């Protein structure tokens, strides 16, 4: 049976809870609360290895929060979600998709779209300091992915699949802007066009509007780290 901390965390990742938090204080406060749990009250268990989380970033797309760099998905709250930039602990997410003969995932940005999650940028062994993440090659989203999901038996049931456990330790999360959002050469138009062309067929706003929206979210302190 899940501990109270894990139950609380899972509930905070649901769509209803996120929207309620948005209406009561905004998403920054919502992310503050979730970050406090992820960086202070839980750990990731993989077999006999225990890792604390050092560095996370929040991404969420919905009609009132069009953070377009968020990867579209259909997930339950708390599921692992793999994408080109690493792995997320996903929010409850849904998006309409266009049907096609190849059954490819082609999301449509309609008003009811709601998806996102928490990117894990760095972890560190529970018996080490946060500063040791780089030393143990655990500093970077793909390094986290490779460490946690390196290999599993193809013929037997998995016994060491990574999962969250309650594991309290007191370190204060530090909010910051997310990494690597400024486009190469500051070419925002090309960045937006690439995202839209790669994932979406229809767009609810113009490219110029997307550029302004992108720059707005670029400055948000949706990253949290511990030192």
- The chain-level structural class is alpha+beta
Give the fraction of residues assigned to helices.
Answer: 25-40%
**What's the count of strands?**
11
Tell me the series of helices and strands, N- to C-terminal: HHHEEEEEEEEHEEHHE
Question: Mean of the pLDDT scores?
Answer: 94
Give the percentage of residues in beta strands. Answer: 15-25%
Termini gap:
32 Å
Rg from C-alpha positions?
18 Å
Q: Give the number of helices.
A: 6
Taken from the alpha-carbon principal axes, the silhouette is globular
**Largest β-sheet summary:** 9 strands, antiparallel
Low-confidence stretches: none
Written overview of the protein:
- With 227 residues, the chain is of the alpha+beta class.
- 29% of the residues lie in helices and 25% in strands.
- It has helices at residues 4-12, 15-25, 27-40, 141-148, 188-199, 207-218, and strands at residues 42-46, 49-62, 65-66, 80-83, 86-90, 96-97, 107-108, 114-125, 163-166, 174-176, 223-225.
- The strands form 2 sheets. Strands 1, 2, 3, 4, 5, 8, 9, 10 and 11 form a 9-stranded antiparallel β-sheet that branches. A two-stranded antiparallel ribbon has the order 6-7.
- Strand 2 (49-62) and strand 3 (65-66) form a beta hairpin.
- The protein is globular, with a radius of gyration of 18 Å.
- The mean pLDDT is 94.
Please render the helix and strand layout as text:
Elements: H1 4-12, H2 15-25, H3 27-40, E1 42-46, E2 49-62, E3 65-66, E4 80-83, E5 86-90, E6 96-97, E7 107-108, E8 114-125, H4 141-148, E9 163-166, E10 174-176, H5 188-199, H6 207-218, E11 223-225
Antiparallel strand pairs: 1-2, 1-9, 2-3, 2-8, 2-11, 4-5, 5-8, 6-7, 10-11
Helix pairs in contact: 2-3, 5-6
